[in-house]
Design a protein that fits this description.
By secondary structure, the protein is of the alpha/beta class. The protein has 3 domains: about 180 residues; about 160 residues, 2-Layer Sandwich (Alpha-Beta Plaits), CATH 3.30.70; about 250 residues, EAL domain (TIM Barrel, Alpha-Beta Barrel). It is about 60% helix and about 15% strand. Strands 8, 9, 10, 11, 12, 13, 14, 15 and 16 form a 9-stranded mixed beta sheet that branches. Strand 12, helix 18 and strand 13 form a beta-alpha-beta unit. Helix 4 packs parallel to helix 6 and helix 8 runs antiparallel to helix 9. The protein is elongated, with a radius of gyration of 38 Å. The site of one calcium ion (CA) has 4 residues, from loops. Ligand C2E binds next to strand 9, helix 13 and strand 13.
Length: about 625
């Protein structure tokens, strides 16, 4: 039996009506023949049994269609099905036995043919199930062999050998097809690399499992396991080592499971576990957490692969599975959200999906929907935050997007920008931000605002969009003189380093040809690797506001800031301190030769008009 596989049951289920059809109609012919040869009563009784067993078969057939089974119920159903098939073939054996007791040649011919025909039917219809086809072929063919032997003549012995051979051939062909079926089934359901079940099988399993949960009102859990920084190992040590690591990871996870827990590889470095059934949610929850922690522990141990000592951790998202919903995808998605949350909270951890996360996801969906109309409805506008030099004179501005949604109210940019990035809306939005900002810069120029720099935030997806350079070029042409272009600075973040660095440099260089400069935003929060400072053609760094905020409290931040400033000087980079909120911070930065200051201490982000007034006042 193909364990756990409902396709197997579905196949055997489909054969029930065929079996009934092949018995009920030809069966009438046998009744007629028996009547013609003087044994009507026994034949009618025989046919009565056929009808009764068919009726039973019909119920077995209906049960499978109507109900969602628990595993236990399915097992019982399968037992009934097995008995049903045995009953039918035994009935065909009995008509054989009935006919050969009569001393009439015609009936003997028909009996022999019936036996062979029934054996062929058994070998073809029951092929997926060894436990069914082997005994049934033997039940039908062995009496035939004995019958031929009992003739006691040379042709009888030959026919006995023939029928034994035929029985062997039938079993052999059914077994071969069975093996082939198992093999293709194995390949379709398993992952080639690790030998675990694959995504395709997992989805089927989960769906069947959910109907079982529905029938029993039990609960279970789903763990989504994603390795941390696996890509780095693959990229730096090669795919062979990556593959070996995945195999070992698969083995270690498997080692944490009991026989009721299900493991599959979804692809790449993603694995999934489905737990067993629990009556009690609390218990289910505890077991999920325990298992997740065991898996983390097992994965954290070091790996020795081709003389490399490797370490890897994983992030695990957990969702609680029930039979209430028939969308298996829902639980996978929930585990996925929880898994990303685990990544965001520093990786190497477990997060269980909860109501709060569900609310946030719903809210994000709402934001994503509303965002699509935000530009048409003129809900998005730009503010400009002044940047000052050490003499507290306005020398620059950073353009910051704002969204006041008609339906949702004020949504901050660190909420809607990432959503716009995910949905791809950032391309349209980014173009709007560029155009509005460029227009403002040119208007200020006419109004006599003489600033040295004008910063615009560029998101990753916008930066890599194939039309980005052309867009910038066109907008420059439309709004900016050469002198104004020299003021524009694009702020990018350190996460850009994780991308194809050659490509990043190529894009940056093409933009720089227009006269635009680059600044590394949120400096110190991301990769913090100095090597790229030399590598990338940047002109400025912005010390992240989290460092400035803790300046007064933590001495380490002071050391950090002074070393950033020293280093920037060594690389000949301008330094902007953002989030300067008080004069103590300003004084410290000033003493350490910071170039530009931006923060609430001087001004919050202002509208175009308010910025003009602020500029004129200072
Ligand atoms: P960011 O690029 O680091 O922008 C600086 C943020 O610091 C702004 O928040 C600004 O209002 C805030 N800020 C400035 N001075 C102070 C201060 O003294 N104290 C405190 N606590 N905060 C200060 P905002 O405008 O909410 O923007 C948040 C983030 O959203 C930005 O961080 C940026 O990553 C993103 N963002 C904003 N506008 C845009 C945009 O036009 N395009 C893109 N791609 N991202 C944007
Ligand atoms: Ca910025
Ligand atoms: Ca920043």
């Amino acid at each position: 039996m193909i364990s756990n596989d409902n396709h197997f049951f579905a196949y055997l289920h489909k054969q029930i009506p065929i079996m009934m059809f092949l018995s009920l109609f030809p069966g009438l012919g046998y009744v007629f023949l028996s009547w013609a040869h003087g044994i009507p009563l026994r034949a009618v009784i025989w046919y009565g049994f056929i009808v009764v067993v068919s009726f039973w078969g019909y119920h077995i057939y209906r049960d499978y269609l109507d109900k969602s089974f628990t595993k236990k119920q399915l097992k019982r159903w399968y037992l009934h099905l097995t008995l049903f098939y045995y009953a039918f073939f035994l009935l065909w054996l009995s008509i054989f036995l009935l006919f050969i007791t009569k001393n009439e040649h015609q009936l003997h011919y028909i009996a022999i043919f019936t036996e062979i025909g029934a054996a062929v039917v058994a070998s073809s219809l029951l092929m997926p199930d060894k436990k069914l086809f082997k005994p049934n072929i033997l039940i039908l063919m062995l009496p035939l062999v004995v019958y031929f032997l009992l003739i006691g003549e040379w042709y009888g012995y030959i026919l006995a050998i023939f029928s034994a051979t035929l029985a062997w051939v039938l079993i052999y062909t059914a077994s071969s097809s069975h093996k082939l079926l198992m093999h293709t089934n194995y390949q379709a359901n398993h992952d080639f690399l690790t030998g675990l079940y694959n995504r395709y099988y997992f989805i089927k399993y989960l769906q069947d499992f959910m109907s079982s949960l529905k029938a029993s009102s039990h609960r279970s859990y789903l763990l989504l396991i994603d390795l941390d920084h696996f890509k780095t190992i693959n990229d730096s040590l090669g795919h062979d080592i990556g593959d070996d690591l995945l195999k070992e990871v698969a083995e270690r996870i498997e080692g944490c499971l009991n026989s009721h827990e299900f493991l599959a590889r979804l692809g790449g470095d993603e694995f999934v576990i489905v737990g067993s059934e629990y009556e009690n949610l609390e218990q289910c929850y505890l077991q999920a957490e325990k298992l997740a922690n065991n898996v983390l522990l097992a994965l954290r141990e070091n790996y020795l692969i081709e003389c490399h000592n490797l370490y890897i951790s994983a992030s695990i998202g957990v969702s609680m599975v029930s039979g209430d919903s028939n969308a298996a995808n829902r639980f996978i998605k929930e585990a996925d959200i929880a898994m990303y949350e685990a990544k965001e909270r520093g990786r190497d951890g477990v997060i269980v999906f909860d109501e709060e996360m569900a609310k946030r996801v719903a809210m994000n969906l709402e934001i994503e929907r509303s965002l699509h109309f935000a530009l048409e409805n003129n809900e998005i506008y730009m503010l400009y935050q002044p940047q000052l030099n050490k003499d507290k004179k306005v020398v620059g501005a950073e353009a910051l997007a704002r969204w006041t949604s008609n339906s949702l109210g004020e949504i901050p940019p660190d909420v809607f920008i990432p959503i716009a990035e995910q949905s791809g809306f950032i391309i349209e939005l980014g173009r709007f931000i560029l155009e509005t900002s460029f227009r403002t810069l040119s208007i200020w120029d006419q109004q006599g605002v003489n600033i040295k720099q004008f910063s615009i935030n560029i998101s990753m997806r916008q930066f890599f969009y194939f039309d980005f350079i052309d867009d910038v070029r066109l907008l420059c042409k439309e709004y900016l003189t050469d002198e104004m272009r020299g003021k524009v600075i694009f702020e990018i973040t350190e996460s850009i380093i994780a991308e194809d660095v050659k490509k990043v440099i190529r894009i940056m260089e093409e933009i720089k040809e227009l006269g635009i400069r680059f600044s590394m935003d949120d400096f110190g929060t991301g990769y913090s690797s100095l090597s790229y400072l030399k590598l990338l053609p940047i002109d400025e760094i912005k010390i992240d506001r989290s460092f400035i905020a803790e300046l007064n409290e933590t001495p380490t931040d002071q050391v950090m800031i002074s070393s950033i400033l020293n280093m920037a000087k060594a690389f000949n980079l301008m330094v902007v301190a953002e989030g300067v909120e008080n004069l103590d911070q300003f004084d410290y930065l000033h003493d350490n030769h910071c170039d530009i200051y931006q923060g609430f201490c001087f001004s919050k982000p202002l509208t175009e008009q308010k910025f003009l007034e602020f500029y004129q006042k200072t």
